[in-house]
Amino acid sequence: MHVGWSQLVGLDLASSVQSGQLQSLDWHPTIADNQVSTAIYGRSMSQSEETFYDDMASSYHLIFDDWDKAIERQRAVLVPLMAAPDVLGTILDCACGIGTQALGLALAGYDVEGTDISNTEVERAVREAALRNLDVKFRVDDMRLLSTCKEQHYGTVVAFDNAIPHLDSDEEVAKALAAMLRSLRARGKVFVSLRDYGTLLTQRPTVLSPSLFIDNGLRRIVHQVWDWQDARRYTVHLYITRQTNSLGWQSNHFVGRYRAITPDEVATLAARVGFNDVQVLSPTVTGYYQPIVTATAP
């Protein structure tokens, strides 16, 4: 069960939850059970992103209403964007996390490989695949390098759920896009989803409306506070508060940093590194909760 209050800034909370994920996905926490836990990371993805993702691996599913149902809903959105499995070839999910997209695509019959900078998230993704009897090859890699990935091999590369804004400059984003391009075979496609930051950069919200979930009769509340550091960078304070029994509650506080970049800006960088047919697909077109930048390798 989910109950939403008001709206997210510029986005309807209920529609985000129906898509299987809060629009507040761009958090990656450090968690300590039964206590308040805080982690702060700096501007460089390479400095602390691995640790940040490692710490949140066991808790990532808590931002969904129901993670298994979210996998199914996201699969239903993604599959129509892609060719059939026997035509497409292997998909590379280069920001796989615990496997939300990779597992769904594998369930749809695709050959999928997943990479992530977090060893602990990769380990959980491996376990989740095994639980579902899926053969998905997960491993550790940095999306800016993709050094473990074959060049000109994949039919599609995906990087979903606001992974790109972890990168702190246009140069780093371009480096990641160039690595994706190198990994694609001729006419292969890339799909990148991220927040629609255009409005958010203007509004500069400081708080997002909370969401209330019911887990076996116990309440779980998720909300965010944003502290803007400069014109683009902001610190996210995400709070997950869970009812443990009729009287007890457990609250966890997670802190992360992002650099806002718009889908159009990502599209411009994709064209600059050599992609063709660059487009930004809106949620009204795809049914996905974020805009999707898509482009084709020459």
Structure explained in plain terms:
- Helix content is 31%, strand content 28%.
- The protein has helices at 13-18, 45-56, 67-78, 85-88, 100-107, 119-131, 170-183, 197-203, 263-273, 283-286, and strands at residues 2-4, 91-93, 112-116, 137-140, 154-159, 184-193, 207-215, 218-228, 233-243, 249-259, 276-281, 292-296.
- It has a 7-stranded mixed beta sheet, with helices on both faces. It has a 5-stranded antiparallel beta sheet with strand order 1-7-8-9-10.
- α7 links the parallel β5 (154-159) and β6.
- α3 crosses α5 and α7 packs across α9 (263-273).
- The model is unreliable at 1-47 (pLDDT under 50).
Name of the CATH first level of the largest domain: Alpha Beta
Along the chain, the helix and strand elements come as EHHHHEHEHEEHEHEEEEHEHE
Q: Please list the strands of the largest sheet in the order they lie side by side.
A: 4-3-2-5-6-12-11
Overall geometry: globular
* Count of folded domains: 2
Instruction: Let me know the number of strands.
Output: 12
Which parts are unreliable, with pLDDT below 50 for 5 consecutive residues or more? 1-47
First-to-last CA distance? 46 Å
User: What is the radius of gyration computed over CA atoms, rounded to a whole number of angstroms?
Assistant: 18 Å
Please estimate the helix content. 25-40%
CATH 2nd-level architecture of the largest domain: 3-Layer(aba) Sandwich
State the secondary-structure class.
Answer: alpha/beta
Percent of sequence in beta strands? 25-35%
